[in-house]
């Protein structure tokens, strides 16, 4: 090989050093505030069950009731596909996977509700019972992958009650063996960042009282008021809330009906696809981007109950809203009734299965630098691998079929989906190196 020609430059090395020194605080700030997605599993939904109604059999009961709804209103793949408009090639695989999911893992994320849905007479006892039942479920392997409570908010009228319920619940978990993996807490009706700061202080005090690692307990922030989106000074309150959480925020959950009512939307038009809802969720999405905080859509209050025709109408509505949310990158939502589970999983499975082959082909071509009709960049490879991992996590895809079409292992996918800041790869970097540099994707947040 011939001698390389010397390349001329004009700037002294000191210039680059000075610039690097001046930007060091910015580099540190970027790393601290925008660490990227945590690379852990995100549940496709959250199921809310009132604290006074929660039992040891709740998760299994929801699965059984969902299967019974299928048996009664869509007993085979063809009838279910006809209701939802599924294409012929997806009818059988989606229906089969939905039934298998309802038998194996009907609920991915369960929230025992002590806020709007709670009607009990003794909240102390119900909170203690919830802790005991959740601990027992984790010990015997029947718990949903993610479980926790929604406490009352920190507004003055219910603040003491919310703090006490949280204390009883967390203390009960510790007494029963410790805080489980997948523990999730939801703080509702947050309007000011100072309420988030107060929640951080509360959890810090609990950790210190029990010798837990600082930051062990995280929480979700529920966005249900206009003030949570836009502050009086015109700034985006939700961005300030994420900052106030000091790394403890795990999610932003949109509250469809409280938020709509806050804006004066009439009851007949309160829905997750209302323009006001789209605006709120778009602000949440931008505020959370890169921070590691996930965004969840809300729910529909149209329940699939009654005669078959009415159930089918509710299923079509729920399926359409879920598909719409997925296309907008809201990968999680709320389900309020067992009858919503069949269409939740149908929508999720169809979303990942119908785009599976194209995504796998694009990622394989990117890795092999073999071209094609789409020129993908490292950020797109990250999105493609993240899409496949989400499909694997929920059960829409199988490891074998993903490996067969991409030539990649799960570890390889994880390396592409969660690179460190500044580590997005150029085409052709060996996959083994990519996997070594990426974060792992576990089943706990």
Give a short synopsis of this structure.
The protein is α/β, with parallel strands linked by helices and 445 residues long. It is 52% helix and 9% strand.
Describe this structure in words.
- This protein is α/β, with parallel strands linked by helices and about 450 residues long.
- It folds into 2 domains: about 45-350, Phosphoenolpyruvate-binding domains (TIM Barrel, Alpha-Beta Barrel); about 355-435, no CATH class.
- Helices cover about 50% and strands about 10% of the residues.
- An 8-stranded parallel beta sheet has the order 7-6-5-4-3-2-1-8.
- Helix 6 links the parallel strand 3 and strand 4.
- Helix 7 runs parallel beside helix 8 and helix 12 (about 340-355) packs antiparallel against helix 14 (about 380-395).
- The protein starts with 12 loop residues before the first helix and ends in an 8-residue tail after the last helix.
- The model is unreliable at about 420-445 (pLDDT under 50).
């Amino acid at each position: 090989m011939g001698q390389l020609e010397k390349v001329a430059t004009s700037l002294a090395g000191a210039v680059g050093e000075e610039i690097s020194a001046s930007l060091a605080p910015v580099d540190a700030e970027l790393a601290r505030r925008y660490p990227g997605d945590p690379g852990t599993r995100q549940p496709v939904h959250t199921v809310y069950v009132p604290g006074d109604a929660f039992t040891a059999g709740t998760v299994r009961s929801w699965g059984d009731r969902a299967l019974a709804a299928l048996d009664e209103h869509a007993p085979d793949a063809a009838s279910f596909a006809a209701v939802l408009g599924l294409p012929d090639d997806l009818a059988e695989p989606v229906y089969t996977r939905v039934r298998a999911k309802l038998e194996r893992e009907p609920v991915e994320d369960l929230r025992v509700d002590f806020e709007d849905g709670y009607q009990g007479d003794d909240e102390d006892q119900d909170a203690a019972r919830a802790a005991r039942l959740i601990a027992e479920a984790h010990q015997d392997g029947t718990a949903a992958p993610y479980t926790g409570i929604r406490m009352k908010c920190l507004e003055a009228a219910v603040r003491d009650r919310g703090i006490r319920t949280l204390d009883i619940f967390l203390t009960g978990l510790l007494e029963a063996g410790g805080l489980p993996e997948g523990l999730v807490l939801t703080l509702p009706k947050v309007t000011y960042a100072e309420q988030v700061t107060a929640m951080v202080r509360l959890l810090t005090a609990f950790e210190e009282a029990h010798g837990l690692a600082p930051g062990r307990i995280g929480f979700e922030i529920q966005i249900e008021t206009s003030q949570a989106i836009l502050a009086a000074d015109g700034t985006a309150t939700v961005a300030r809330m994420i900052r106030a959480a000091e790394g403890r925020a795990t999610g932003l959950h949109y509250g469809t009906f409280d938020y709509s009512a806050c804006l004066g939307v009439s009851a007949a038009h309160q829905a997750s696809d209302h323009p006001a809802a789209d605006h709120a969720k778009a602000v949440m999405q931008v505020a959370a981007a890169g921070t590691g905080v996930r965004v969840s859509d809300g729910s529909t209050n149209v329940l699939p109950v009654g005669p078959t025709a009415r159930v089918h109408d509710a299923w079509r509505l729920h399926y359409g809203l879920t598909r719409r949310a997925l296309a907008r990158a809201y990968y999680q939502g709320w389900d309020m009734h067992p009858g919503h589970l069949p269409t939740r999983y149908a929508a999720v499975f169809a979303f990942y299965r119908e785009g599976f082959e194209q995504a796998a082909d694009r990622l394989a071509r990117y890795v092999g630098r073999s071209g094609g009709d789409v020129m993908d960049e490292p950020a797109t490879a990250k999105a493609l691998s993240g899409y496949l991992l989400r499909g694997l996590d929920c059960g829409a895809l199988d490891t074998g079929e993903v490996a067969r079409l991409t030539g990649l292992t799960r570890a390889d996918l994880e390396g592409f989906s969660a690179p460190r800041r500044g580590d997005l790869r150029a085409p052709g970097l060996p996959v083994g190196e990519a996997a070594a540099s990426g974060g792992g994707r576990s089943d706990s947040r």
